[in-house]
Amino acid sequence: MALGASHRLQDGVAAVETMTRFALAVLALASGVYTYLGVRSILDGSPTAVFFAAIIYSASVSVAIYAFWSYMARFYPHVTGTAARSAMLGVMALGCAMIIAMSSWLNAAALAGSAALEQHLAETVEDYTADLDQAHQNALAAQSLLPDIQRASERFARLAEDERQNGALTGTTGSGSVVQLLSQMSSQLNELETGITASRERVTTLFDQGRAHLETMRKLVSAPGAVAPRSDEFSAEVVALSGVITALEQTSIAPSVKRAAEDLSLGFIAPVADGRAAELAERQDQVMETIRASVTAQSEVLSQAADEILAREPVPERRFVPLSSAEAVLRYAADFIPAWAGAISIDLLPAVLVFILAVVHGAIRRQDERLPFAQRITAAELLEALEVQRALSDRGVDLAEAVRAAEAEEEERRAGPNVTSLDMSAKAPRKGPPA
Fold first, then answer.
1. 339 and 317: one domain?
2. pLDDT of residue 420
3. Same structural domain, 47 and 121
4. Is the dihedral of CA 133, 139, 145, 149 positive or negative?
5. How does pLDDT run across 355-389, given as a tens digit for each residue?
6. What pLDDT does 293 receive?
7. What are phi and psi of 419, to 5 degrees?
8. Which of 152, 186, 293, 367 could bridge to 157 as Cys pair (CB 3.0-4.6 Å)?
9. pLDDT at 326
C-alpha cells in the first residue's frame, strides 16, 4: 500500500508540473503589470521615456520573479541535508526581501496609491483646519478684555458726570481738574475699546476667507477623477489658506492692548488743581492721587491679561509637501494593510507552492526508504537487470563481486549528503513491456 501511495504522489507531482509553471508565469506577469503602474507614478520626464523605462523595469521584475521561484521549485524540494536546506531557506528569505523591495511596494502603490494620496490630502485639511481655528482663537482672545475695558470706561465717565453734577468727589460741582482727568481716562479706554471692536470685524472677515478655502480643499479631496490635477489645485488653496492664517496671527490686538494698558499708568499726567480756594485745591489733589492709583491698578490688570494672551502658543509653521502615490503608500502603510497584503501575496505566493512540493517529495522519500529493494523495483527495471546479468555472465564477470561492490557504493551514498535528483517532477515508475 505504501508503494501505491508513493506512486500516486509521484503521479500527482508530474501532473501539476505544467500547472506550477503556468501559475508562476501568471503571478510574475501580474506583478509586472502592477509594478509598471507603480513605476509610472514616480518617474518624471517625457511620456515616451517614462513608458519605456517603466516597461523595461516591470519586464525585469517579472523575469526575476519567475526565474527565482522556478529555481526554488526545482531545487529546494530535493535538498534533504539540514545545512543545505537551511542555506536554501536563507536564500529564499533574501530573495523574498529583494522582491518586496523592488516590486511589492510598487504593487501597493498601484493598488492603493490614489487612496493614499487622498488620505494625505484629507489629513492635511484636518491639520490646516486646526491651525485656522487656533489662529482665530488667538486673534479673538483680546475680545475677552472688552467687557473689563467697557466697565472701566463707564466707571470713569460716571464719576466725571457725578463730579460735574453733584460734586461727588470734591464736594464742589462744576467741570474742574478732576472732571477733566476722569474724562481723559474714559476717552483713552473708549479708544482702546474701539480698536478691539474694529479688530473683531477684520478677524471675522479673515476667518470666513479661511473657511472658504477649507471648503474648496475638502471638495478637492472627495471629487471624482484623477488625483494628480486635484492635488495641484489643492496646493494652490493651501498657499492661500496659509496667507490667511498668517494674517490672523498678525491681526491680534493683544500687543496693542498691552501697550495701551502701560500708557495708562506710565503716561498718566494729572492736571494742576484749579480750585481757587486752598481747601478745594487740596481736595482736588487728593482725588487725583486716588484716580492715579485706580488707573495704575486698572493698567496692571489689563497688562496681565494681555500677557496671558500673548503667552498663548502661536500657530506652528506648516508646509504642504505633495507626495507621489508610492511615497503616500509608504507613509500611510498602516491604513492600507489589505492593499499591502495583496501586493506582497502576488509576489510571495509561489513560496507556498515550493513548500507543497517540498512536503510531497519528503513524503515520497520517506515511503521509499521504508520499503525493501524488492518492493521498490519495477518490472521494467527487473527485466533490465536480467539483461545486464546475462551480458555480464557472457563476458565472464563475477556477479557476486559486482553485487558486493554495488552494495558498498550504496552504503557510501547513504552515509554522505543525501541529495536526490534535481528534477522538479519525481521520476515516474517505469512501465514494463507490453504483454
1. no
2. 43
3. no
4. negative
5. 999 998 888 777 766 655 555 566 676 677 777 77
6. 74
7. -120, 115
8. 186
9. 79
What is the spatial distance between Cα 39 and Cα 42, in angstroms, rounded to a whole number?
6
Q: CA-CA distances (angstroms) from residue 82 to 41, 87, 89, 390, 413?
A: 44, 9, 10, 42, 16
Residue 102 domain flag: yes
288: helix, strand or coil: helix
Joined together, the cell numbers standing for residue 134 give 487656533
How many other β-carbons are positioned within 10 Å of the β-carbon of residue 1? Answer: 6
End-to-end CA gap in the chain: 24
Q: Which triple of cell numbers denotes residue 369? A: 526508504
Task: Say whether both 120 and 268 belong to one domain.
Answer: yes
Percent of the chain topping pLDDT 70: 78
Answer positive or negative: Cα dihedral of 321, 326, 331, 336.
Answer: positive
Is residue 180 located within the same domain as residue 310?
A: yes
Q: Quick one: 239 and 353 in the same domain?
A: no
State the Cα–Cα distance between residues 375 and 378, nearest whole angstrom. 8
Question: What total of structural domains would you count in the chain?
Answer: 3
Per-residue pLDDT tens over the stretch 102-132? 898 888 888 888 888 888 998 999 999 998 9
C-alpha–C-alpha distance, residues 165 and 172, integer Å: 9
Task: Please identify which residue in the block is written with the cell numbers 552515509.
Answer: 415
Concatenated DSSP letters for 128-188?
A: HHHHHHHHHHHHHGGGGGHHHHHHHHHHHHHHHHHHHHH-TTTS--SS-HHHHHHHHHHHH
* Structural domain span for residue 9: 2-113+335-378
pLDDT digits (tens, 9 = 90+) for 280-322: 566 666 766 777 777 777 777 777 777 777 777 778 888 888 8
434 belongs to a structural domain: no
Task: Express each pLDDT in 201-255 by its tens digit.
Answer: 888 888 899 999 999 999 988 888 888 888 888 999 999 998 988 888 877 777 7
Q: Which of 281, 296, 324 is the last residue of a domain?
A: 324
Q: How many CA atoms lie within 13 A of 331 on its CB side?
A: 17
* 177: confidence class by pLDDT, cuts 50, 70, 90: low
Length of the chain: 435
List 419's β-bridge partners, or say none.
79
Outline where DSSP puts E strands in 259-354: none
Query: Looking up cell 494672551, which residue turns up?
Result: 309
Residue 422 · residue 361 · CB < 8 Å: no
Grid cell of 143 as nine digits:
475680545
Pair (58, 70) in one structural domain? yes
- Under 8 Å between Cβ of 79 and 419: yes
pLDDT in tens, 24-55: 999 999 999 999 988 888 887 788 988 999 99
35 & 138 share domain = no
Is residue 432 domain-resident? no
